């Protein structure tokens, strides 16, 4: 099939490359001419494991880019909206980019003969596809949904760092459509994948995405709450959760206590669902507590650090922060738990030395007044303490590097270090045990 994709960010670029790999002809639409040039040259505008290889393979063959909506729509059967939906200060999502993309699609569809399908892949609150996207396209196209064009919602369930794998080996594919014809055509795009398609209406598909992410975020905050209690009782929370996770009703995933969740999805999506619930007159107590627990976790790390010094004062202390990305295998720092930790350390007048294999350049845009090193060993040299913030595999292998520290105090926010396996003698403080 012929597909056009609006937006060349994380979801759009990954979806474009994977649809091309599935044998579809893909046209990316982006108003940024530099991104258009990059994609046509096979250069991904974002980092994602395996993405560059796919783009190099399909660029100028099954995958091209343009800024011309008319060209893209006239040469495709299905258009995916994959633009950003940033959060406002109150947690509600900003739909301005979705509205703009819908209007542009509507104007292009007005000039096209034949049936065209518009699929929302951006994460939007329930009701958005039918109450915002559909009427916007109708207004700008002069055509009727269900008759002249189709509308569907097809949420993504991609993990950053593993997005290519997740797209090609999905746990679930959800297609919410306004009619059977549209749902069948969108489903056909995925027919070569070994996964059953869940068919539903657009509002339910939108809700599935939010509930999926909110439940995972809830597991994390629940685990952190239990971890905080375990620490006060001098109980190893990881031992507790390992046993709890053997229950098939619970599973071991997302039960690892630590510094909390970040990224572009979990915080934003939980807050958006909270905002939507309040809009309809419901106070989501549990979801609010998920966010509250998560926001406290980084501060607990700093409290643990302060307690390791006799007077609780870390002014002038050299603190190494290992890990800046919100998770491993990405350079994404959005809602990274390192950000509030570094901010608090600076407020307490500590000297911050940071290292991350990929995300240092991004973090420099947030904190230009800290020192960045090219290795963990460099960051640890003469440090008074170390905080581990991201699950990079290389941090699991650290040992002799701790010998470079002035004081071997390690606050592990990601359960990376096993003290008994180290040759170095360190004063180890697991975040929650």
Structure description:
By secondary structure, the protein is α/β, with parallel strands linked by helices. The chain has 2 domains: 2-200, 3-Layer(aba) Sandwich (Rossmann fold), CATH 3.40.50; 234-433, 3-Layer(aba) Sandwich (Rossmann fold). It is built from 16 helices and 14 strands. The chain has helices at 10-21, 33-40, 51-58, 69-74, 96-110, 128-141, 163-168, 180-188, 202-232, 237-244, 266-279, 285-307, 338-347, 360-364, 376-380, 393-396; strands spanning 2-6, 25-29, 63-66, 78-81, 116-120, 149-153, 173-177, 197-200, 318-322, 351-355, 371-372, 385-388, 409-412, 427-430. The strands form 2 sheets. An 8-stranded mixed beta sheet has the order 3-2-1-4-5-6-7-8, sandwiched between helices. Strands 11-10-9-12-13-14 form a 6-stranded parallel beta sheet. Helix 1 links the parallel strand 1 (2-6) and strand 2. Helix 5 runs parallel beside helix 6 (128-141). It is elongated, with a radius of gyration of 24 Å.
């Amino acid at each position: 099939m012929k597909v056009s994709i609006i937006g060349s960010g994380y979801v759009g670029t990954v979806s474009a490359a994977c649809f091309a790999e599935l044998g579809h002809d893909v046209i990316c639409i982006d108003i940024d001419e530099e991104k258009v040039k990059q994609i046509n040259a096979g250069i991904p505008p974002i980092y994602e494991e395996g993405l560059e290889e796919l783009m190099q393979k399909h660029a100028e063959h099954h995958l091209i880019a343009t800024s011309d909506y008319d060209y893209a729509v006239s040469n495709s059967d299905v258009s995916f909206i994959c633009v950003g939906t940033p959060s406002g200060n109150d947690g509600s999502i900003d739909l301005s980019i979705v509205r703009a993309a819908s209007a542009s699609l509507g104007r292009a569809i007005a000039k096209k003969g034949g049936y065209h399908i518009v699929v929302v892949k951006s994460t939007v609150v329930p009701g958005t596809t039918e109450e915002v996207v559909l009427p916007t396209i109708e207004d700008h196209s002069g055509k009727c949904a269900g008759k002249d064009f189709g509308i569907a919602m097809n949420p993504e369930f991609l993990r950053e760092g593993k997005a290519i794998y997740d797209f090609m080996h999905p746990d679930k594919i959800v297609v919410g459509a306004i009619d059977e014809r549209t749902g069948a055509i969108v489903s056909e795009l995925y027919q070569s994948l070994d996964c059953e398609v869940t068919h539903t209406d657009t509002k339910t598909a939108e809700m599935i995405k939010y509930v999926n992410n909110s439940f995972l975020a809830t597991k994390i905050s629940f685990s952190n709450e239990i971890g905080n209690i375990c620490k006060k009782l001098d109980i190893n929370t990881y031992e507790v959760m390992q046993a709890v996770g053997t229950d098939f009703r619970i599973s071991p995933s997302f039960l690892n206590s630590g510094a909390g969740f970040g990224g572009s999805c979990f915080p934003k999506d939980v807050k958006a669902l909270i905002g939507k619930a309040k809009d309809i007159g419901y106070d989501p107590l549990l979801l609010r507590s998920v966010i509250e627990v998560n926001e406290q976790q980084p501060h607990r790390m700093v409290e643990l650090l302060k307690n390791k010094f006799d007077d609780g004062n870390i002014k002038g202390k050299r603190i190494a922060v290992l890990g800046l990305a919100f998770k491993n295998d990405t350079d994404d720092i959005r809602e990274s738990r390192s950000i509030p930790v570094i901010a608090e350390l600076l407020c307490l007048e500590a000297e911050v030395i940071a290292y991350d294999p990929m995300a240092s350049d991004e973090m420099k845009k947030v904190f230009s007044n800290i020192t960045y090193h090219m290795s963990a060993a460099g960051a640890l040299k003469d440090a008074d303490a170390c905080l581990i913030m991201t699950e990079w595999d290389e941090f699991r292998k650290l040992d002799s590097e701790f010998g470079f520290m002035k004081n071997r105090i390690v606050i592990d926010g990601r359960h990376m270090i096993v003290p008994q396996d180290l040759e170095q003698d360190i004063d180890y403080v697991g975040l929650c045990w």
